[in-house]
Amino acid sequence: MLATNNKIVIFDTTMRDGELTPGVKMNLQEKIGIAQLLEQMGVDAIEVGYPGRYEKDFEEIFEISKVIKTSTICGLASSDREEIITVAQALAPAAKARIHTYTNVNLSNQSRQSEAEVLAVIKDSISLARNYCDDVEWSAFDATRSELDFLCKSIEVAINSGATTISIPDSLGLMLPEQFAQFLENIFNKVIHINDAIVSVHCHDDLGMAVENSLTALTCGVRQIECAINGLGARKGNADLEKIVQGVLNDGEFQIEIDTSLISIASELVAQITGIEKEK
Known about the structure:
The chain is an alpha/beta fold and 280 residues long. It has one domain (9-274): Alpha-Beta Barrel (TIM Barrel). The chain is built from nine helices and eight strands. The protein has helices spanning 28-41, 55-67, 81-90, 115-132, 148-160, 177-190, 210-218, 241-251, 263-274; strands at 9-12, 45-49, 72-77, 97-104, 136-141, 165-170, 198-203, 224-227. An eight-stranded parallel beta barrel has the order 1-2-3-4-5-6-7-8, surrounded by seven helices. The model has no long low-confidence stretch (mean pLDDT 95). This is 2-isopropylmalate synthase.
C-alpha cells in the first residue's frame, strides 16, 4: 500500500498499543466491534495485537482477519523468527495483511551487539516477513535516542530487504516538534532510497507533543501517522486519532479518507470498553 502524492495513511493502534494503557484489556468481541467501526471510518491499517508476546492476541488477529475486508489488518512482532511466523499465521485469513516488525536501533542499550549484527538481524527478519506477506512495516525502535548514521544505515537495509513502510517512532516521547522535524529531515536527506517506502511516525505523548510532532512530520515527507482512539497507549499514550484527522483536514494540503462523522461514536465505544474517558 504505497502512499501517492499527499495521501496520508492512518494507522490505528488502539487495540495493540492501547492495551498497554494501565488497566486496559479488551476481549475478542470488543476488538471486533472496534475493528468494524474503524473499517467503516475508512482507517487504512488496523493493528490488532502482538501474538508473539500475548497469547490472546493470536485469536483476536485471526478472527478479525476473517471479518475485515477493506482495511489492512496488522500484527506486531520483534525481529525474532518465531514471533514473525506467529504473526504470519494469525494473519492467514486476512484479505489485506501487514506484518509489522521492529528492531532496537539504540545500540547503547544493547548488550555488546555490533552494528553489523543488528543490520543482519534487520535484513533477515524483514526478508522472512516478506516470504509471508508483501506488506511489511519495519520500526526503528528507540530511533530518537540512536546514533543518526547507524539509524540511516538501518533504514537503508530495511528498505533494501523489502520493507514497504518505515516507522520512525519517538518511542519514549522525548522530542519537541522543532527537534523532531530536524531529526526527520536529516533522515530524509541521508537515506538514499527513502522514497522507495512510505515513512511513518509513531509518537508518544510523554511531553504532550504526540499530535503536534505527528502533524509536523508531514511537512518533512512522512505519509503515515500511527495513532489511537482517545490517545490510548503506553505511559502517557499515543497521538489521538481524532486530533490527527482534524489537524490533517485543517492543514488542507493533504488527502485523508476518513468519515469524521463516526469518530465520536468510536471514541464513546472505546471509552465504554476501557472505562477511560477521552480528555477534552
